[in-house]
Design goal:
Layout (H helix, E strand, L loop, with lengths): L1 H19 L4 E3 L5 E2 L12 E2 L2 E7 L6 H6 L5 E7 L1
Antiparallel strand pairs: 1-2, 1-3, 4-5
């Protein structure tokens, strides 16, 4: 009886933790990562869950990679969006 109760409580905790994980999307316009249904950077709703490569830009003004990828805001970006 006690084991059944412990198992049930554990399953309830697992179900709650699954709800807390948000799916990550990438904007097809600017390639920025987001967990929302709209891009925080360009306000586009054209998002994809398929992507390859990852780059994090902290200081846009000092970054050669940001210039090469034409990124103007700090953040987390995908290199390829499917």
């Amino acid at each position: 009886m006690r084991r059944k109760r412990q198992r049930r409580l554990l399953n309830q905790k697992l179900k709650r933790s699954d709800k807390m994980v948000k799916k990550t999307y990438v904007c097809r316009e600017c390639k920025m990562f987001t967990t929302e249904k709209e891009c925080p950077n360009c306000k586009s709703r054209d998002l994809s869950a398929s992507w390859k490569g990852l780059v994090i830009i902290n200081k846009v003004e000092d970054s050669e990679v940001a210039k090469l990828l034409e990124i103007d805001k700090p953040g987390k970006y995908a290199l390829f969006v499917g």
